């Protein structure tokens, strides 16, 4: 069902005023974690000024250590809905289990399935039975075949509004948090009809190379980019190192606009 042989034309996903796939690029941004109303509103207002339509932010956080901040849960999603309604944005947030679906559906527009849950087949089946668009992340060590089959699980249940997002894979390289697999972009575009995005924050873990990586994936045919933005990254409760502040976000966004690759 995900294959180009099954459907040759690109899938375009409309979510309120946001369009993902097709001729225009989508830039999704927002903090790693929703931390407070103030924090999210500050970021969202800055993004809105740059014309962005989709706000990201985690409330259920899949942290490596159980001692790290686990997210605000439903309270975070309430903040997200409140902020998004106030300024008029579309929202995406991660859910980690089928049990979170009904709650999350009340607050957010797009369900994100995180890298760690790409192989959670019960979750894939469960979100496949919802009407929400799904942003599916590539697993930490997933092959492209496995990634496409994870998407297939969702479509197989009847939900064809799926977006694929490359977020870096595990390799021996230490210079970046993960290795951005640029070749994933043209391969996924060739083999599937689904929109293909790239999370430049999690794939590199480095804010100093976000712009060249974003340009590279747009040149390779990506339909969009995801980037983490926080009002005060050193104080962030998760992914403090890789999040850009608002000025850095504007510089990144301007760099993309000036590149001629982003439209
Ligand atoms: C995230 O986007 O917040 C996240 C946890 O990313 P990933 O699942 O790609 O690690
Ligand atoms: Mn993060």
From TrEMBL:
Source organism superkingdom: Bacteria
Signal peptide span: none
InterPro entries, A to Z: Aldolase_TIM, Class-I_DAHP_synthase, DAHP1/KDSA, DAHP_syn_2
Keyword Transferase applies: yes
Domain DAHP synthetase I/KDSA: 11-252
One of the protein's GO biological processes: aromatic amino acid family biosynthetic process
GO molecular function: aldehyde-lyase activity; transferase activity
This protein's UniProt keywords: Transferase
Record protein name field: Bifunctional 3-deoxy-7-phosphoheptulonate synthase/chorismate mutase
